[in-house]
Amino acid sequence: MEFIDLRSDTVTKPTPEMREAMAAAEVGDDVYGEDPTVNRLQELAAERTGKEAGLFVSSGTMGNLIGVLCHCERGDEVIMGNLAHTFLFEAGGISALGGVFPHTLPNQPDGTLNLIDIQSAIRMEDVHFPKSKLLVLENTQNRCGGAVLTAEYTGQAVELAHRYHLAVHLDGARIFNAAAALGVDVKELTGPVDSVTFCLSKALCAPVGSVLCGTKDFIYKARRLRKQLGGGTRQAGVLAAAGIIAIETMSKRLGEDHARARRLAEGIANISGFSLAFGMPSSNMVFIDMAPSVKYSAQEAVAKLMEDGIKIGISGERRFRMVTHYWINDEAVERTINAFSRLAG
Ligand code: TLP
Questions:
Q1: With bands split at pLDDT 50, 70 and 90, how would you rate the model's confidence at 167?
Q2: Fold exhibited by the domain 13-251
Q3: How confident is residue 1, by pLDDT bands cut at 50, 70 and 90?
């Protein structure tokens, strides 16, 4: 059976154009900095994010980890949302490998952190306290429903952090989705921050990789950290070739995924027993709550949908997540809505 896989946009497979480019990619040893395709990808990523340099890394998790470790020493404190991917889903890497201490603040429903909360969390110089070194923002904010942070908010948060000598790292795993949703250039959202990671392998469809971007000095330091983590790869141009298409071509079509997410949300919200956890989606994620009137548990509901050839994610006791992407067409959306109607009985 051909599945409709809505569990994540990480499930996207490379497009035929990517596979061709991968086969034809010019390669070299990237640890020597000699892979022309990786170099081209890094320059393109830096240019798109408005930074001096970029570094190809194997995942978003690695990009965020290296980003945090570049900005912080052991014992330093990093401020981030209690729903931040770096806090929830990166296996505690910043603490395990960097001795960095997370200070979490409540994410607001719109994905932001209150500026007042950030200001209050910043430590003054005192021998009792860890040093506040970094603020991490996430755009789009995954666990807030794929919420989009505006350029205005980003600028305000960065201005506040810089006033207290904190750097700002942006987990921009889906920053191209955020830019598409707002109808702005990615640079407007990444320009103010000191460093940003974005993913090639989510909605942009590349099979592997993310890019970490920042100043030349920052990326020089990041390169050493990537080596320490065993992430220095050799003929990675075969992967970077897909990444270039991800940025140049696939970033232009994300509005389609967002429109399908809205249609899916609207269709399911009209079925009795199901409601939108975060209102209408602003990007490619749909979070649905299931009322007790529906006789299934979340696990049973997922198993039922699976029988209909539909895979979705569970993200709470009776909450589901669905993510639209390149391989989800209009028909898949309608089939999913119909399958939810059957669940409602
Ligand atoms: N998110 C995945 C899961 O890990 C939850 C998903 O399916 O959404 N930042 C953000 C905001 C992310 O959503 C993810 C992946 C990452 C970083 C990590 O990227 P990878 O998986 O490449 O390490």
A1: very high
A2: Aspartate Aminotransferase; domain 2 (3.40.640)
A3: confident
Q: From CA 156, how far away is CA 297, in angstroms rounded? A: 42
CA 165 to chain centre: 26
Residue whose entry in the numeric block shows the structure tokens 């340099």: 53
Distance 318 CA to ligand 1 centre (A): 21
Index of the ligand 1 atom closest to the CA of residue 84: 11
* pLDDT computed for residue 258 by the predictor: 98
Closest CA to 17 of 200, 240, 211, 249: 249
Distance CA 333, CA 27 (A): 39
Query: Bridge-partner residues for 199, per DSSP?
Result: 210
Angle at 216 between CA 178 and CA 205, to 5 degrees: 35
111 in contact with ligand 1, CB cutoff 6 A:
no
Q: What Cα–Cα distance (Å) separates residue 152 from each residue in 32, 149, 189, 191, 254?
A: 40, 8, 8, 11, 22
Average pLDDT over all residues of the chain: 97
- Domain positions in the chain: 4-10+253-344, 13-251
pLDDT in tens, 124-159: 999 999 999 999 999 999 999 999 999 999 999 999
- Counting ligand 1 atoms within 8 A of each CB, the residue from 65, 86, 89, 322 with the most, and so the one to mutate, is 89
CA dihedral over 172, 176, 180, 181, signed as positive or negative: negative
Looking at residue 227, the DSSP 8-state letter turns out to be: H
- Third-level CATH fold of 4-10+253-344: Aspartate Aminotransferase, domain 1 (3.90.1150)
Q: Is the CB of 173 under 6 A from ligand 1?
A: yes
Q: Is 107 in the pocket of ligand 1 (CB under 6 A)?
A: no
